[in-house]
Amino acid sequence: MKKALTLPVAFVAMIVLAVLSVRAGAVSVSFRDIGAIMLQQDSPFQFIVVHVRLPRVVVAILAGSGLAVGGVILQSLVRNPLASPDVIGMTKGAGFAAAAVIYLFPGSPGYVLPAAAFAGALGAFGLLALLSRRLSLSPAALALVGIAVGAVFQAGIQYLIVRHPADLNMALLWLSGSLWGRGWADALSLLPWLAVLLPVAWLNSAKLDIFRLGDETGASLGIGVVRQRFWLMLLAVALAGISVSAVGAIGFVGLLAPHIARSLVGGRHRLLMPLALLIGADLMLLGDGIGRIVAIPREVPVGIMAAVIGAPYFVYLLRKERRLGR
């Protein structure tokens, strides 16, 4: 019964956080004005709500969902609780490729940015997979090598900053991960991709349950282990890359959301995945909301707030895995 309540509770939390996110900021909007705007009544805050804060909320929900589900898939395939798009360097790879498009090809069509982010995430994971196979890494060591891979791509972003100092503000937003200035165009660029990828991920819940049991079990049940792992890994890479293309290299959402969801409902992916999706959206909204009110009239990027929340938890996981001898 408690497990059945987690999804509606997480959904209600997302709605509450979304409303509070629309309300909070340098200019506070009352609940009465928000209600009036939703009912298409006149309000002096209509532009702020409709064209500034609502698209920002939608982008936060979509990107947080994509990063969280990508984390679920990676942790299940690698059977490593420390795996997530940001920890193993995928978000940094996607961020580097997207930043390269922004700096080097500023006039590119809108569809080029998500494609570049996907390619960057795929390149980061390919590099990590090559290193892990050659070095026969343990789960904890895999996470540490992933951090090193991410640092390489981070250095690439910093190189772009040095070469293009006129775009420093944009670069800093990419480095920290931010929802500042996100509009309906960003939301619409995310929506069609995630509308396809998230249902596909959920439809593969049973396969992910089997992968957590080991390759031998999967092979004995007639699953093409290598082929299915490849396609599911591409799915995780796509989710991370598309999300990063809209919000920058935000860390720890893909690590925290699956762990919180797993502690509440266990490891069955049919329930774990939608709960992690909602928790990922909640974390993004929470981080963005706190970041906008902690230093008014300035704002702290959501990527920094996510790191403040997630870094201590990551250290805890490392210590836990070390105690277990993994």
UniProtKB/TrEMBL annotation:
Subcellular location: Cell membrane
Classification via Pfam families: FecCD (PF01032)
Main localisation: membrane
Cellular component GO terms, alphabetical: plasma membrane
Membrane topology recorded in Swiss-Prot or TrEMBL: Multi-pass membrane protein
GO MF annotation list: transmembrane transporter activity
UniProt GO BP: siderophore-iron import into cell
TM region positions: 56-75, 87-105, 111-131, 140-161, 230-259, 271-294, 300-318
Assigned keywords, A-Z: Cell membrane, Membrane, Transmembrane, Transmembrane helix, Transport
InterPro entries (alphabetical): ABC_BtuC-like, ABC_transptr_permease_BtuC
Family assignment from sequence similarity: Belongs to the binding-protein-dependent transport system permease family. FecCD subfamily.
Name under which the protein is recorded: Iron-dicitrate transporter subunit FecD
Record organism: Paenibacillus flagellatus
Taxon lineage: Bacteria, Bacillati, Bacillota, Bacilli, Bacillales
